[in-house]
Amino acid sequence: MRKLLNKLVFVANSVVAFALLLSYLLPYVSPVSFSLLSVLSLAVPLLLLVNIFFLVYWAVQLNKRLLLSLLVLMLGLSHVLSLYKISNTTKVAAAEGVSLMSYNVHSFNRFNWIASDSIPHQISTLIKQEQPDIFCVQEYFDTPHIDFAQYPYTYKDFNNDNGELALVIFSKFPIVNKGSLQFKKTPNNIIFADIKVNNDTLRVYNVHLQSHKINPDKEALAKEDSKKLLQRIQSSFKKQQNQAELLSTHLKSSPYKNVVIGDFNNSAFSYVYNLVRSERLKDAFKEAGSGFGKTFEFDFFPLRIDFILVAEELEVVEFKTFDAKLSDHYPILSRIKF
């Protein structure tokens, strides 16, 4: 009976190991060319965790079948490090460097997804406590119950196809130039601001790539038509590729050190992430983060889809993910030095 069980487990192990191995190609496979395969990028965290489970399962039995998952995981070590980062114990002085924060605020709970009337006030309080020097907001909605008066410089952009939600860059440093990539036929967009920081200038991009319009709740997902859901994700991935290509071109033309902040609606295992990061940027979470770095409320596995990517010349001295359940996303903060 034990032998039969192990054979069945190994078959399942082989399927999951092959799927993970296949996922290693995703950063180099265009969603426009292979949109169905690109969907796998959202499941990579689950594939990693399941392969780790199988590795432990065989290791406990001292069974040589552990080599399958071990080999696949070793081949994708960079993927493992994108999923989980061992804590960096280096302590950073509170005032050292420039702090950057990103938060998709989900329009400040205007449709009461969370049973609380104080969400805007709680978000305002969080930002006042953390005091980020540069604060990028996605899905900003004008409401009288928020207060970011500590920022003397603001760039707010309501994309031309969306009169309600905006991307906003708040700054304690002067904004000397600003602009929008102006995506068409979508409320998603990318804006940028050139920010004078002492004797240097940063070009900060606030990014909100194409949304999938997925309700992460288990019951809501169970009611979804799987074929339509898959088609919707494939379509949004194609749009994300076009948007990321526009960003990549814009990054190349920047005369300053670039910082890309925001909601990619995709994982660190995706084509769009790899495309943007390849423009001489590094992931602040990988440099100074800890744990799973989960940034999106998803019941099935930890999902990191919000990023702070900074120019390779900049030093990342701190990264934090906040366990603040005030949106469907979690805020992230990084501190950098020139």
UniProtKB/TrEMBL annotation:
| TM region positions | 7-26, 32-59, 66-84
GO BP terms, alphabetized: DNA repair
User: Per its Swiss-Prot or TrEMBL entry, what cofactor is needed?
Assistant: Mg(2+); Mn(2+)
For the Endonuclease/exonuclease/phosphatase domain, which residue ranges apply? 101-329
Pfam families for the chain: Exo_endo_phos
| Any GO molecular function | endonuclease activity
Q: Which domain of life is it from?
A: Bacteria
Give the UniProt keywords, A-Z: DNA damage, DNA repair, Endonuclease, Exonuclease, Hydrolase, Magnesium, Membrane, Metal-binding, Nuclease, Transmembrane, Transmembrane helix
What PANTHER family does the annotation carry? Answer: TRAF AND TNF RECEPTOR-ASSOCIATED PROTEIN, TYROSYL-DNA PHOSPHODIESTERASE 2
Q: What is this protein called?
A: Endonuclease/exonuclease/phosphatase family metal-dependent hydrolase
Q: Which organism is it from?
A: Aquimarina brevivitae
